[in-house]
Structure formats: structure tokens, C-alpha cells
Write a structure and sequence with these properties.
12 helices, Alpha-Beta Plaits, 8-stranded mixed beta sheet, alpha+beta, globular
């Protein structure tokens, strides 16, 4: 994380030199207490925002396809109803999987899985939410308009929880590459599809079927990034195999231990033990 950029995002760029001179990097920043900040000369305007957390987050960015054309074709009140119905449907799907709708941006919805509540399977929850959203909108008519959505999903380490803005415009920001990557992948997605990044793909394993899109050029990121299109849940019988099977290696030189386990398993099956 770029500490100077983080401070600029909070409107506190005047402290950038102080933080740099005291060797406050991203790792040190997360360990600072209120007393530490006061010792650096930081006034109370940043102390109320010092509850930001560094954590792994899966970010989902959802977009309504063709919204610009709809806005020019529909009466403003009808268009408002369409957008409201779209927002309600996305929010219902996200919250049903314990995700958090962070922001509505016109025809876009930004959602977090892993904040404020975290689960071991947040990446899987985001994945399922994305598929549910595009499937729910496929063929759905509102005000005689057929709605279609597309979704981008990325997972990574971010700093989340800073309050930015004031009043009704106040929101909790996320600092890091992950939200930008999710938004860029959404822009690359075809209508009615979900595109995910490499970290998300690793976390969900073979629980789903995919189409490999290869490495794609993403604006703002120097090197091409691997991407996959999500297709559907897979038919794997074992959840453990789907998530961990590819990482397992065959045991070597453990014949005695395996034999002991098999003997104990046989006794357990016979009701002994």
C-alpha cells in the first residue's frame, strides 16, 4: 500500500512528509496506536479514522448492460424504476450470501465479501452471487426492458474501513488494487457472464467450471493478468477434493504408517475404538 496515496484519499496529505520521515510504511501504519499518532503530531481528524483494517477481501463489481442506451430511450421516471429494481435484485443476492453492498454507482454496484464480516469461503460466496445475478437478469423484463448484467470478481489484500466524505456522501473506502481489478474485469466481461481473477480462481478450486480467457490486458496494470469466465457449479462429489485435491501429493515412504491407519480403521468399522 502507498501510504502517501492513502493519506491523500483521506484529505490528510499534509502528514505525508511526517510519515515518510518517521519510516511509517504500510506495515508500521497498521500497528500504530492513537498515542503513536499523537506523538507524530497527528491531530484528532485522523484519529477517528484509525480503525482501518488490512485484510483479504473479495470484491465484486456488477454492471447493468446497455444502461446508457436505456437512459436515452426511457422516460426518466421509468428509467429510475428500472435502476431501482436492478439495485434491489443485486442487493438481495449479495446480502443473501452475507456480502456487503458498499456503493451504488448509477448502473454499477460494488460489493465486498469478507467485510465487515469474514468467512472462510468468501471467494466462493462472491462467485455464487455473481452467477446468481447474471442468471436472474437473463430474460428478465422490467417496464418492457430486458435487463442483462455482467460481473467482475477479484480477491486480494486491501486496507478497508476508512470513512471518507461527509453526511450522506460518507462511505467506507477500500484501498488497494483489488477493487480496480474487479471493475476492469467487469468491463471485459460479455453480457450475462462473470469474469474472475487468478487469486479468486485459486480459492474456489474446482467447485465451478470455467473457460480460460488467457492473460488479458487490463488498464492501469502493467502486465497482462490471467482471467477466467465462470460457467456453472461443477459436479464434483467431494468438496475437499474440489478445493484441495490439486495441491495434494502422493505419500512416499509411509507404508508402515498407512498400514497402521488401515488397521485402526478396520477396528473402528468393527465397533472397537
Amino acid at each position: 500500500m502507498d501510504v502517501a496515496a492513502w493519506l491523500r484519499g483521506l484529505g490528510l496529505e499534509r502528514y505525508a512528509v511526517t510519515f515518510r520521515d518517521n519510516d511509517v510504511d504500510a506495515e508500521v501504519l497498521l500497528q500504530l496506536t492513537a498515542d503513536d499518532l499523537i506523538g507524530l503530531g497527528v491531530t484528532s481528524d485522523i484519529l477517528v479514522r484509525a480503525d482501518a483494517e488490512r485484510r483479504q477481501l473479495t470484491v465484486m463489481f456488477c454492471d447493468l448492460v446497455g444502461s446508457t442506451e436505456l437512459s436515452s430511450r426511457l422516460d426518466p421516471e421509468d428509467y429510475r424504476e428500472v435502476i431501482a429494481a436492478y439495485h434491489r435484485a443485486v442487493s438481495k443476492t449479495v446480502t443473501a450470501l452475507d456480502g456487503f453492498v458498499a456503493k451504488y454507482m448509477g448502473d454499477g454496484v460494488l460489493a465486498y465479501f469478507g467485510y465487515p464480516g469474514a468467512h472462510e469461503d468468501d471467494a466462493e460466496r462472491a462467485f455464487r452471487a455473481g452467477l446468481d445475478i447474471v442468471n436472474a437478469f437473463a430474460g428478465l423484463d422490467i417496464k418492457s426492458v430486458e435487463l442483462r448484467a455482467r460481473v467482475g470478481i477479484a480477491t486480494g489484500v486491501v486496507v478497508v474501513g476508512d470513512l471518507i466524505g461527509e453526511g450522506s456522501a460518507q462511505e467506507q473506502s477500500v484501498v488497494g488494487e483489488t477493487p480496480n481489478l474487479a471493475a476492469r474485469l467487469q468491463a471485459l466481461a460479455e453480457p450475462d457472464t462473470v469474469v474472475i481473477a487468478a487469486a479468486t480462481r485459486r480459492l474456489v478450486g474446482d467447485l465451478f467450471e470455467y473457460r480460460d480467457l488467457g492473460s488479458v490486458e487490463v488498464k492501469g496494470i502493467a502486465a497482462p493478468v490471467p482471467a477466467w469466465q465462470a460457467l456453472r457449479p461443477s459436479a464434483v462429489a467431494s468438496r475437499f477434493e474440489a478445493l484441495r485435491g490439486a495441491a495434494l501429493t502422493q505419500l512416499v515412504g509411509r507404508e508402515e504408517e498407512i498400514d497402521l491407519l488401515l488397521r485402526r480403521w478396520a477396528r473402528a468399522q468393527a465397533g472397537d475404538g
